């Protein structure tokens, strides 16, 4: 497992600079760099403000506008006769969750990441605070997965990088107790945890 993580780290060091360049084109930061060069050389035209919309931004926004619906909804079909009332109730419940969780905004972000990075992910979780499912959009930089699989169902592994403080990591490396007081194994292997190095902010990126 450690070798797998190290391999993905090496891949990220190569891919991330290229993806940053694509994001710079999308956000128009390449234009800022050119203007900065002109200003440093005393060549900047100060006669008036100039604006330019990057083609990459316009293309991606237009593409997403034709893909993501304004009000995302799902249709539930009953597999057996006589379940029409249950079908309607489940469909209404699912669509209420999509509205409450701002599915339109999440899907727009997901499609933007997929266009820029080649992939984007949605993580479904249960929120105790909200009392319902909630969804988080993750970028390719946050998820390491089996890229040899043709379908997601065939992926042998998926790792989400999660930022933890040193105290949180050390707590998860200690023995635990069940609600009945019985000992439980630590979430993280104590022997592996001994070789962990922390960055200057006393936090560490680990898989989840």
Keywords:
208 residues, alpha+beta, 7 strands, 44% helix
Q: What secondary-structure arrangement, pairings included, does this model have?
A:
Layout: H1 2-27, H2 29-40, H3 55-65, H4 84-100, H5 103-117, E1 120-127, E2 132-139, E3 143-145, E4 158-165, H6 166-172, E5 176-177, E6 183-184, H7 190-193, E7 203-207
Antiparallel strand pairs: 1-2, 3-4, 4-7, 5-6
Helix pairs in contact: 3-5
Description:
The protein is of the alpha+beta class and 208 residues long. The chain contains seven helices and seven strands, in the order αααααββββαββαβ. It has helices at 2-27, 29-40, 55-65, 84-100, 103-117, 166-172, 190-193; strands spanning 120-127, 132-139, 143-145, 158-165, 176-177, 183-184, 203-207. The strands form three sheets. Strands 3-4-7 form a three-stranded antiparallel sheet. Strands 1-2 form a two-stranded antiparallel sheet. A two-stranded antiparallel ribbon has the order 5-6. A hairpin with a 4-residue loop joins strand 1 and strand 2 (132-139). Helix 3 (55-65) packs across helix 5 (103-117). The longest helix has 26 residues, at 2-27. It is globular and about 50 Å long. The model has no long low-confidence stretch (mean pLDDT 80).
